[in-house]
Protein backbone atom coordinates (compact mmCIF):
# COMPACT_ATOMS: atom_id res chain seq x y z
CA UNK A 1 0.00 0.00 0.00
CA UNK A 2 1.47 3.42 -0.85
CA UNK A 3 2.40 5.60 2.10
CA UNK A 4 -0.19 7.85 3.71
CA UNK A 5 2.08 10.85 4.11
CA UNK A 6 0.30 14.16 4.17
CA UNK A 7 0.01 17.40 6.04
CA UNK A 8 -2.67 18.05 8.67
CA UNK A 9 -6.11 18.53 7.20
CA UNK A 10 -8.63 20.87 8.75
CA UNK A 11 -10.92 18.13 10.01
CA UNK A 12 -13.23 19.87 12.45
CA UNK A 13 -16.09 17.66 11.30
CA UNK A 14 -14.01 14.48 11.70
CA UNK A 15 -14.05 13.33 15.29
CA UNK A 16 -11.84 10.53 16.52
CA UNK A 17 -12.26 8.78 19.83
CA UNK A 18 -9.41 7.78 22.15
CA UNK A 19 -9.19 4.24 20.71
CA UNK A 20 -8.88 5.65 17.17
CA UNK A 21 -5.96 7.86 18.20
CA UNK A 22 -4.31 4.97 20.06
CA UNK A 23 -4.59 2.69 17.02
CA UNK A 24 -3.19 5.41 14.77
CA UNK A 25 -0.08 5.58 16.96
CA UNK A 26 0.37 1.82 17.00
CA UNK A 27 0.17 0.92 13.33
CA UNK A 28 3.42 -0.87 12.58
CA UNK A 29 3.94 -0.28 8.88
CA UNK A 30 3.61 3.46 9.29
CA UNK A 31 6.41 3.43 11.83
CA UNK A 32 8.59 1.60 9.31
CA UNK A 33 7.90 4.36 6.80
CA UNK A 34 8.60 6.95 9.48
CA UNK A 35 12.02 5.49 10.30
CA UNK A 36 12.87 5.44 6.60
CA UNK A 37 11.86 9.06 6.08
CA UNK A 38 13.37 10.55 9.24
CA UNK A 39 16.81 11.49 7.98
CA UNK A 40 17.24 14.16 10.64
CA UNK A 41 15.55 14.69 13.99
CA UNK A 42 13.90 17.99 13.04
CA UNK A 43 11.91 16.26 10.30
CA UNK A 44 10.80 13.36 12.50
CA UNK A 45 8.08 15.05 14.56
CA UNK A 46 6.66 16.58 11.38
CA UNK A 47 6.73 13.16 9.68
CA UNK A 48 5.01 11.44 12.63
CA UNK A 49 2.20 14.00 12.58
CA UNK A 50 1.84 13.73 8.80
CA UNK A 51 1.58 9.92 9.01
CA UNK A 52 -1.09 10.12 11.73
CA UNK A 53 -3.04 12.71 9.74
CA UNK A 54 -2.78 10.64 6.56
CA UNK A 55 -4.08 7.53 8.32
CA UNK A 56 -6.85 9.49 10.01
CA UNK A 57 -7.87 10.95 6.66
CA UNK A 58 -7.92 7.50 5.03
CA UNK A 59 -10.04 6.16 7.89
CA UNK A 60 -12.46 9.05 7.60
CA UNK A 61 -12.72 8.45 3.86
CA UNK A 62 -13.63 4.82 4.54
CA UNK A 63 -16.19 5.88 7.14
CA UNK A 64 -17.77 8.24 4.63
CA UNK A 65 -18.17 5.27 2.26
CA UNK A 66 -19.48 3.01 5.03
CA UNK A 67 -16.56 0.65 4.50
CA UNK A 68 -14.33 1.23 7.50
CA UNK A 69 -14.58 -2.31 8.89
CA UNK A 70 -11.42 -3.43 7.06
CA UNK A 71 -9.10 -0.78 8.49
CA UNK A 72 -10.74 -1.15 11.92
CA UNK A 73 -10.14 -4.90 11.83
CA UNK A 74 -6.55 -4.51 10.65
CA UNK A 75 -5.70 -1.94 13.32
CA UNK A 76 -7.46 -3.93 16.05
CA UNK A 77 -5.43 -7.01 15.10
CA UNK A 78 -2.21 -5.01 15.23
CA UNK A 79 -3.09 -3.97 18.80
CA UNK A 80 -4.09 -7.55 19.63
CA UNK A 81 -0.64 -8.82 18.63
CA UNK A 82 0.90 -6.73 21.39
CA UNK A 83 -1.16 -8.45 24.10
CA UNK A 84 1.08 -10.16 26.67
CA UNK A 85 -1.41 -11.81 29.03
CA UNK A 86 -2.90 -15.11 27.83
CA UNK A 87 -6.16 -14.36 29.64
CA UNK A 88 -6.43 -10.96 28.00
CA UNK A 89 -5.43 -12.44 24.63
CA UNK A 90 -8.24 -14.97 24.90
CA UNK A 91 -10.87 -12.36 25.74
CA UNK A 92 -9.65 -9.97 23.03
CA UNK A 93 -9.57 -12.75 20.41
CA UNK A 94 -13.17 -13.63 21.19
CA UNK A 95 -14.17 -9.98 21.02
CA UNK A 96 -12.44 -9.52 17.63
CA UNK A 97 -14.12 -12.67 16.35
CA UNK A 98 -17.55 -11.52 17.52
CA UNK A 99 -17.14 -7.99 16.17
CA UNK A 100 -15.46 -8.63 12.79
CA UNK A 101 -15.23 -12.30 11.79
CA UNK A 102 -18.41 -14.09 12.84
CA UNK A 103 -21.06 -14.23 10.11
CA UNK A 104 -23.57 -11.39 10.52
CA UNK A 105 -21.29 -9.61 13.02
CA UNK A 106 -21.66 -5.82 13.40
CA UNK A 107 -18.54 -5.04 11.34
CA UNK A 108 -18.23 -8.24 9.35
CA UNK A 109 -15.16 -8.31 7.13
CA UNK A 110 -15.20 -9.84 3.66
CA UNK A 111 -13.25 -13.10 3.98
CA UNK A 112 -13.82 -16.58 2.58
CA UNK A 113 -15.53 -19.39 4.48
CA UNK A 114 -12.31 -21.38 4.96
CA UNK A 115 -10.51 -18.44 6.59
CA UNK A 116 -13.53 -17.68 8.77
CA UNK A 117 -13.64 -21.29 9.99
CA UNK A 118 -9.88 -21.36 10.60
CA UNK A 119 -10.17 -18.25 12.78
CA UNK A 120 -13.09 -19.81 14.63
CA UNK A 121 -10.77 -22.73 15.53
CA UNK A 122 -7.83 -20.41 16.31
CA UNK A 123 -9.85 -18.37 18.79
CA UNK A 124 -10.38 -21.47 20.94
CA UNK A 125 -6.62 -21.51 21.64
CA UNK A 126 -5.53 -18.01 20.65
CA UNK A 127 -2.04 -16.82 19.91
CA UNK A 128 -0.70 -13.63 18.39
CA UNK A 129 -1.04 -15.01 14.85
CA UNK A 130 -4.62 -16.32 14.90
CA UNK A 131 -5.90 -13.47 12.68
CA UNK A 132 -2.90 -13.23 10.32
CA UNK A 133 -4.55 -14.84 7.28
CA UNK A 134 -7.62 -12.60 7.57
CA UNK A 135 -5.34 -9.58 7.97
CA UNK A 136 -3.56 -10.48 4.73
CA UNK A 137 -6.88 -10.77 2.90
CA UNK A 138 -8.20 -7.50 4.31
CA UNK A 139 -4.95 -5.68 3.56
CA UNK A 140 -5.12 -6.93 -0.03
CA UNK A 141 -8.70 -5.68 -0.37
CA UNK A 142 -7.72 -2.24 0.89
CA UNK A 143 -4.64 -2.16 -1.32
CA UNK A 144 -6.55 -3.09 -4.48
CA UNK A 145 -9.87 -1.34 -3.85
CA UNK A 146 -10.22 1.19 -1.03
CA UNK A 147 -6.83 2.86 -1.22
CA UNK A 148 -6.89 3.57 -4.98
CA UNK A 149 -10.39 5.09 -4.54
CA UNK A 150 -9.02 7.18 -1.68
CA UNK A 151 -6.20 8.45 -3.89
CA UNK A 152 -8.79 9.62 -6.43
CA UNK A 153 -11.05 11.25 -3.81
CA UNK A 154 -11.67 14.91 -3.05
CA UNK A 155 -10.60 14.42 0.57
CA UNK A 156 -7.18 13.19 -0.60
CA UNK A 157 -6.83 16.07 -3.07
CA UNK A 158 -7.56 18.49 -0.22
CA UNK A 159 -4.92 16.76 1.87
CA UNK A 160 -2.37 17.19 -0.92
CA UNK A 161 -3.34 20.84 -1.41
CA UNK A 162 -2.73 21.46 2.29
CA UNK A 163 0.64 19.74 1.99
CA UNK A 164 1.64 21.92 -0.94
CA UNK A 165 0.43 25.06 0.85
CA UNK A 166 2.59 24.39 3.89
CA UNK A 167 5.66 23.61 1.77
CA UNK A 168 5.48 26.89 -0.12
Write a concise synopsis of the structure shown:
With 168 residues, the protein is mostly helical. The protein contains 8 helices and no strands.
Q: H/E element string? A: HHHHHHHH
Largest sheet: none
Number of helices: 8
Write down the Rg.
17 Å
Low-confidence stretches: 1-43
Distance between the termini: 27 Å
Structural class by SSE content: mainly alpha
- Beta strand %: under 5%
Rounded average pLDDT: 78
**DSSP E strands, number:** 0
Overall geometry comes to elongated
> Helicity, in percent?
55-70%
Short descriptors:
mainly alpha, 8 helices, elongated, single chain, 70% helix
Describe this structure in words.
The chain is mostly helical. α4 runs antiparallel to α5. The protein is elongated. The two termini are 27 Å apart.
Task: Outline the fold blueprint.
Blueprint: H1 18-26, H2 28-37, H3 41-64, H4 69-80, H5 86-101, H6 113-124, H7 132-151, H8 154-167
Helix pairs in contact: 2-3, 4-5, 4-7, 5-6
